[in-house]
Fold these 2 entries.
Entry 1:
Amino acid sequence: MLKSLHIKNYAIIDELNIDFSGRLNIITGETGAGKSILMGALSLILGDRADTSVLMQADSKCFVEGTFMVAGKPAIAAFLQSNDLEEEAELTIRREIAANGKSRSFINDTPATLQQLRALASLLVDLHQQFDTLELGDADFQRTVLDALAGQATAVQTYKRAYQQWHQQQQQLAGLQEQKQNFNKELDYFQFQYSELEEAAFAENELENIEQELQLLTHAEGIKTTLNRVYYDLKESEQPILTLVKQMSSQLLQFKDYHSDVAAIAVRLQSAHIELQDIAGEVDRLNDAVQFDEKRIETINDRLALGYKLLKKHGLKTTAELLQLQNELQQKLQAVLNIDDAIAAKEKEVATLLAEAQRQATALSAARKQQTPSLEQQVNALLAQVGMPNARLKVAVTDTALHAYGMDQVDFLFDANKSNRFEPIRKVASGGELSRLMLCIKSLVAQSIDLPTMIFDEIDTGISGEAAKQVGIIMKKLADARQVICITHQPQIAGKADAHFFVYKGTRGDAITTNIRQLTQEERILTIAQMLSGEKPTTAALENAREMVMS
C-alpha cells in the first residue's frame, strides 16, 4: 500500500506531505483546486515522462517521493531480487527533475530507469481514470478476468509451461525440416565435392612430400655426378684421400715415442680415416639409391597438378586442409542420412507435447465457459446497483487455434439499453459507462486475486444519488482487503471514507499553491454538506452529511 507521498515544486504544489490510510482514502476539493495534479505527481514515480514545464519554480528541482509498504508481496520481492535491489518492508521510490530538465529516478536510494519504475508500478498501483479504460476492451484483460474468477491462475501457468515446451520443440522440428530442405538442395553438390576428394585419395602430407621428391628426381643426375666424384676422390683416384690419410697416420706413428702431441695427432688421423671410410660407404649407398625416373616425375607432376587444382578450388593451402574438408563433407553427407531419424524422433516428441497442451487447453476452456454465466450475472447485478439497470454484459468464449493462453478467444460484449444487440464494449459504451463497468469488474476480480493499491480518479462523473451511493459501497467493500484511493465530487462516495483529504488553493507571496489536509470528522460533515447544497449548507444538508459519515 502507499503509505505516504511527498511532493515538492510540482505544478502549483509548493510542498506537501500526505499520509494515507490502508483502506478507503477519499480526496475531494473544488474544481481546479489541484486534485488531479496530485495524480500527475504520483504518475512521475510510476514511470511517466516529464519535463521542466512541471516545475513551479523554474530554478529549483521537482521532487516526488512515495513510500510503499510491501511486506508479504512475493511479486515485488522477486522484482527487487531480479534487479539487484535491496528488499525491505518499506519501499521508497523517488523522482527528481532538475531545472535543466534532467530526470533521475531512485528505488530504495538506488538509481533506476523509467522502464524499471513502470515495471514496479504495475505491481504497486492500479491507476484507474475515467478515460483510462483501454484495457477493458483488450482481449488479454478480458480473458484474465474470466480466469481469475474461475480460480485458474495455477492451471493457466501450468498450461503456459506446457505450451512453451511444445512451441519450442515445434520450432526445433521446423528447424530440422528446413535443414533437411537445405541439405537436399546442396546434397548433389556436397556429394560431388566429396567424391572428387575421395577419388583423389590424398595421404597425409602427400603434396608436401611429393614436392620434395620431385625436387630430388629433377636434380638426380647432378646429385649422382657429384656423389660419384666424391666417392672416386675418396677411394678410387690415383691418390685416394683414404689412402693418403692412412699413410699420414702411419708416418706420424713412427715418432709417437718421441713427442706426445704427435701421437695424439696420429690417433685423430686414424679416427678421420674411419669416418671417411664410413662416408664413402654412405655416398656409395646414396649413389645407388638416387635414380632418374622420368615416369615417376610424370606421375608426381600429375598428382601435384590435381592437388594444386583442388587447393585453388577450395581456397586451401595444405594437404591437411583438404583432408579436413573431405571429413567435413563426409559428416554433412552423414547428417543428411541421419536427419530423417532426427525428424521422426522430434515429430513424435512434438505430438506428445501437443496432445498434453491440447488436453490442458480443453480443461481451461471448459472452466472458462462454466464461469461465463456467473460472471455475466454478477456484473449485471452490479451494473444495476451503480445506476445502469438496462445495461447487460455478455461474455463470448469462442474456439481458436492453440495459443499461449489456451484455445479460446474471450470477448466482452455490451448492450446498454436492453436492445439485445450486443457489441464489443469499445464500440457501444460511453466513457461513464466504461468507468462504472470497469469498477464492477475490478470489484469482482479483487476477490480472486491480490490487486495492488487501487486509485480511482474521478470515475464517478455523470452519476449521483443512489448510483453514487452504490459506487461508494462497492469501493468501501474493495477497501476491506486493499488500499483504495479515490478522487471524487460525489458526497455519497466521500461519506464512505476511512480517511478524507481535502484539496484547496492557498497563496504564498504572489503565487497560488495547492494544499491538502486530512479532515476531522466534523470537518468531513461540513465538507460533505457543502458538496450537497453549496458553500453555506442547510441544516438538512448537514444532517444528511452526518448520516452519510456515520452510516
Entry 2:
Amino acid sequence: MKQSRMYIPTLKQTPSDAEAISHQLMLRAGYIRQVAAGAYTFLPLAWSVIRKIEAKMRKEMENVDAVEMRMPAILPADLWKESGRYETYGDNLFKFKDRHDREFILGPTHEETFTSVVKENLNSYKKLPIVLYQMQAKYRDEDRPRNGLLRGREFYMKDAYSFTANKEQLDVIFNKMEVAYRNIFDAFGLNYRVIIGDAGAMGGTDSKEFSAIAGIGEDTIAYSDASDYSANLEMAASKIEKLPAEEHKQIEEVDTPNVHTIDALSQLLDVNSSRIMKAVAYMADEKPVLVMIRGDYQVNDIKLKNILGADFLNEATAEEVTDVFHSVPGFISPKGMDTTDITVIYDSSLEGLDNFVLGTNKADSHFINANFEDLGDEKPEFKDVRTVKEGEQSPDGKGTIKFTRGIEIGHIFKLGTKFSNALGANFLDENGKSQPIIMGSYGIGISRLLSAIIEQHNDENGIVWPVNLAPYQVHVVPIKYKDDVQKKLSDEIVDLLKNEGYDVLLDDRNERAGVKFADSDLIGMPIRITVGKKAADSIVELKLRKTGETIEVNKDELINSVKILLKNQE
C-alpha cells in the first residue's frame, strides 16, 4: 500500500486534552479521531489492528466451539425491565422512543437479548451446552468519558454467552474460556493479571477479570508479592494482625463534645483508632443497614452490596440516621438501638477486639471499654466488608499485599440462572423436569484492548507494535521516491515482500527524510527499510523499531533478513 493513498493524519504536537499515553499516540499517529465526547472513529491503521485482534479471537473461540453471530444494537426496553437491569443500570443506559412511543435502549451488553433469542429452541438438555458470541459496538452513557478509548460512550467488544444444563458444563466452558483469554492476551505480548473480580450489574457468582498493568488504569489491583493471588481492590481480601487480647473492663460513658471524626476521637481519648468501633449507616434497596468496622478501616461498598444482594446501596443521609435509625449522626451505635428492622453487620476486623470505643446514639458522648457482651452478642457473625491495605498479609498466607493499577481488558462471569429465571428460559432435563438454563458471560473490550496494548508498547518516539498486530509488518521508506533508482528498488522490495505474504507500507510521499522517519517511528511498524544513497548497489538499511538496531543488507539477502528479524521480535 502506498502511503500517499492511505489516510494517516499524523500530528506533530500532542493534543492538550489527551492524558493517557495511548490516547496521545493514537491521535498523533493518525489511528483515531474523536467525533463526539466518548465516540471515536477508527481510522485505517486502527481498523487494521482491530481486524488482526478479531482474527486471533475468532481462532480461540473456534477452539472452544463458540459460534459467531450478530445481535442488533437497538434493544426493546421491556427485555431489560424483565431482567431488572433497566433500573440498576440507571443513567448509563441510552434510552429513547420510536415514532410509536415504544421504549428502546442502545445495548450496553446482550445477556437479555441472547437469552430471549435462544429460549424457544434450547428447550431440551440434548441441545445443551452451546456457546454463542459476537463482535459489536456497545453503548453506555458515561458521565465523564475520558482517556480516549479507555472510557467511552461507544466501544467495540467481543461478548460470548454460554447456555448449559448443569454446573459441571458451565465449569468446563468457564475454564476453557479462561484458557482462551490467556492465549489471546499472551499472543499480544501483554503484561496482565487474572484477578478475582466483581460481577456488578452482570449478576452471578464467580467472576474473573483480566487486567493489563498500566499506570493510567482505573482499577486498583491488590496482589501478593509471593504468590499468584490477585484481586480487584473491590474484592480483595487479606489477613490482618489481631490486636492483643485485654481483660474486659467496665463499660463507661464519657463526654466527647464536638468530635465528628475518628482522628479527633482518637486524639481526645488518647486511644488508637484500631480500638474504636466505627458505625456506618446505609440504605440498601431502601432498607436500613448498620455496618460496624474498626476505626482504622474503611467499608468496601462493593463487598457490602454483594453480601446484601442489593441492587441499590447508598450511605444514609443525616436525616435517615435520625428518622430511620433513630440515632445521631456521628454517634450512631447498635447498643441501645432497636435493631428489629435493621440489618447489623460486623466486619471481620472487629473479631477479638476488647475494650473498644463505641457511639452512644446521643450527641457528644461515647462509650469506652465496651465489649461484645455489652451489645448483647458475645459471638457475633463476622463478615469481610473492609477495603484491604497495602502491606497486609496475603489471604493465602504467602507474601504481602501490594497495589498496582490496571486496565480491565476482559471479564468472565458465571451468571447462573439470573437471566433465564427472569426471562423464562427453561429446558427439560433427563427426567422431563423443567429447569432454568444455566448461563455464563464472557467479554473482551476490543477497543480498550487497543489502548492497553499501546500503553505497554511505546517509547518516546511513538508506538512499538508487536509483530502480529502491526498494521504493516514492514515500512519501506525511500529517501527520494522521485529518484528513478530509489523508486525502482523500493518497488522491487515491496513486490518481494508482498510475494512472501508480508503487509507492506511504502512511503511514496514527497516529504523530507526527517518527516518520513519521524512518522515511521510514530506509527510503529516493526521493521523500517530505508532506501537511500546505496540504492544503485541494491543495498538498503533495516531498522528494528523495538530496539533501534540497524543493519545494511543487499536486496538478495533482504527476505531472509526480514524473516529472521521478525521472528526474533515475536
